[in-house]
Every structure is written in C-alpha cells, then in structure tokens.
Amino acid sequence: MCPACGGFLLGYDLDGIEVEACPCCGGSWLEAGELEWIVEQAGGDAAAVRGALARGGARTRRRCPRCRKRLRAASLFGVELDRCPRGHGLWCDRGELEALVHSGGGEAEALARFLRELYRAELAACEVGG
User: What's the whole-model pTM score?
Assistant: First the structure.
C-alpha cells in the first residue's frame, strides 16, 4: 500500500532493480539496499549513502508498506526522502528520484549518472511530455 496516498503499488524491474511505484501519486518504493547497490554500481561509496540515510530524522505520518511503522525523514544529497526505521526501504515522492538524478558532486554525481542511465526512457518521456 502506498505510504503517501494509500493506493496500490505496482512493481516493475529496471535492469535488475525492483521498484514499486504508485500510479496514483507517482511515488516510488525502493527495497532495502537497492539505493546502496545503485551507488556501488555507479562507482560511488555505498557506506556514505548508508550513513546519510541512517541519521535520525523526524517521524512522518507515512507508514512503511512492509511493517507499517512510521517512516522517518532522511536527507540524501539535499533531497528529502522517507525511510523505514526497521530498514525495509525508502519512499520517494514524485520527483524525488528525478531530483537525485539531477543532483551533482561526489557520491551524488555517481548516483546521478547511474540513475540517469537507469531511468533514461522515463526521463525522455518527461521531457517530451512537459
């Protein structure tokens, strides 16, 4: 169930990474470890990402689709995400994955390069559509 709007999440595969997306609000759920794996594949430091996401953040109203615990706010390269306190995964509102794609510098640049390639078709459709 979508943490943002309560809709159903639909799973799809992007080059071996399973992303669950909400067709209603456009948010995405990444399972635990997937973002770190993406960073490693991009040549970045997954430990730095893990450390940034582990920092304590305020509880949000949203709940983890796996355990139903309240998600916690987390900041990664200036983008606000929601993370499960039990480590089940990350919630990205519409546009937050795109914001990570467009972030830059250091680990953010490695992540951005990989996500740009991963989401190449989706980003092209966004640019054409508006």
Answer: 0.77
Nearest-5° Cα angle at 100, 34 to 116? 80
Q: Which of 56, 57, 38, 55 is nearest to 107 (CA)?
A: 38
The two structure tokens encoding residue 86: 């039990």
Q: pLDDT band for 130, please (50, 70, 90 cuts).
A: very low
- Per the rule left: phi > 0, alpha: psi between -120 and 50, beta: everything else, 17 is beta
- Going through 1-130 in order, the beta strands assigned E by DSSP cover 10-14, 17-21, 28-31, 59-63, 70-76, 79-83, 89-92
Strand 70-76 to 10-14 pairing: unpaired
Structural tokens at position 110: 């490695």
State pLDDT tens for residues 46-95: 788 788 888 778 999 999 999 999 999 998 888 899 999 999 999 999 88
Question: The dihedral of CA 58, 67, 1, 20: what is its sign?
Answer: positive
- State the Cα–Cα distance between residues 49 and 26, nearest whole angstrom: 24
CA dihedral 53, 25, 34, 122 (to 10 degrees): -120
